[in-house]
Design a protein that fits this description.
- With 333 residues, this protein is an alpha+beta fold.
- The chain has two domains: 3-34, no CATH class; 39-331, 4-Layer Sandwich (Glutamine Phosphoribosylpyrophosphate, subunit 1, domain 1), CATH 3.60.20.
- 34% of the residues lie in helices and 23% in strands.
- The strands form two sheets. The protein has an eight-stranded mixed β-sheet. Strands 1, 8, 9, 10, 11 and 14 form a six-stranded mixed β-sheet that branches.
- Strand 3 and strand 4 (114-120) form a beta hairpin.
- Helix 3 (52-63) runs antiparallel to helix 4 (69-81).
- It is globular and about 50 Å long.
- Bound molecules: N-hydroxy-L-asparagine.
- N-hydroxy-L-asparagine binds next to strand 9.
Length: 333
């Protein structure tokens, strides 16, 4: 929160000790400068990175027909998962350092229900399996073999993975990178993950996140993307947030949950994303290659984004908008 906001809240708090948390929230939110608020009418869908433009089209086909935000965020994610030209999501994504493409995904709805899968291989739509975990099981997350058995029982087909292009690229890469641990390279040219937030015509917010994870990660590694609170968090009383970038840094500050809680305390979506990014910056002395970004949507349809480095962007689709906006950021590459 800005100093100005603290001051005003302090004055209000001093003048009227009987203020309820709701009053306080109202007082805080009125302090946000108009220029910091990007607003669109509902329904609306937001996605990370430029591949979000296509994903948004998929989500929009649900929202414009008065479909639910839950169906919209799933459909949007499925568009990117099926795009074989996409080297960062789905079975055409980047492999781990043993050549396996392992996939992580999660989904969360306006009721606070969630489902996730991690470390699954060869499935076209991890996001659908995550939704089934939410709807068909008493669990919040299934990983590895167990998740694959569950998916097969539901009739999801296991495909050949990795696809030949990925295999070829991997063979070249491993020759040049024989060491066990490699530094992350996540920037505007090499990034993974699609994160989607949607609000439907009833004002219900849902989110999804799906990825092949950090390219050439160690086998067995899970990032933030399937972890509720890190890669994605929704609380319909407040809004939702989704993350992209170096998952280890995002997990360590419970990134998306942090963004939502900052909005609950009166910050605008962009301010809340900035606060989460600032925490990452404060806690990581070496920021070389450490790109992380958040997008957030509040319950009134305001949205914003913030990243460590420039180059992150947010795709927006509503009745009167279809655009890719550069995220605000802390520093330049
Ligand atoms: C991960 N957060 O596996 C993902 C990767 C990503 O842009 O979002 N890259 O850590």
């Amino acid at each position: 929160m800005k100093r100005r906001s603290f001051f005003k809240v302090g004055v209000l708090g001093g003048a009227a000790a009987v203020l309820t948390p709701k009053d306080l929230f109202a007082a805080q939110t009125t302090l946000i400068k108009d220029s910091e608020i990007k607003n669109a009418s509902k329904p609306i869908v937001l996605s990370t990175w430029s591949h979000g433009l296509e994903a948004n089209k998929g989500a929009w086909s649900v929202l414009e027909n008065k479909g639910s935000s839950l169906d919209a965020v799933m459909k949007g994610a499925m568009v990117t998962e099926s795009d074989r030209s996409n080297r960062s999501v789905g079975i055409s994504g980047m492999p781990d350092r043993t050549g396996h493409v392992t996939l992580d995904a999660c989904i969360m709805d306006s009721e606070g229900r969630s489902g996730a899968v991690g470390f699954v291989e060869g499935f076209e739509h991890p996001i659908q399996i995550a939704r089934e975990v939410m709807e068909q099981t008493p669990h919040a997350m299934l990983v590895g073999k167990g998740a694959e058995i569950f998916a097969k029982q539901l009739g999801f087909k296991k495909l050949k993975s990795p696809i030949s292009e990925v295999k070829k690229e991997y063979k070249e890469w491993i020759k040049k990178n024989p060491e066990l641990v490699v530094k992350p390279i996540i920037n505007h040219e090499n990034h993974d993950t699609i994160g989607i937030l949607a609000m439907d015509s009833e004002g219900k917010i849902s989110g999804s996140c799906t990825t092949s994870g950090w390219a050439y990660k160690m086998p067995g590694r899970l990032g933030d993307s399937p972890i509720i609170g890190a890669g994605l968090f929704i609380d319909n009383e407040v809004g939702g947030a989704v993350a992209t970038g170096l998952g280890e840094a995002i997990i360590r500050i419970a990134g998306s949950h942090t963004v939502v809680e900052c909005m609950r305390n009166g910050m605008s979506p962009e301010e809340a994303c900035k606060e989460a990014v600032n925490r990452i910056i404060r806690k990581n002395k070496d920021l070389t290659g450490l790109q992380c970004g958040f997008i957030a949507l509040d319950k009134d349809g305001n949205y914003g984004a913030y990243s460590v480095y420039n180059g992150f962007n947010i795709a927006v689709k509503s009745i009167d908008k279809e655009e890719l906006i550069d995220s605000a950021y802390d520093r330049k590459w």
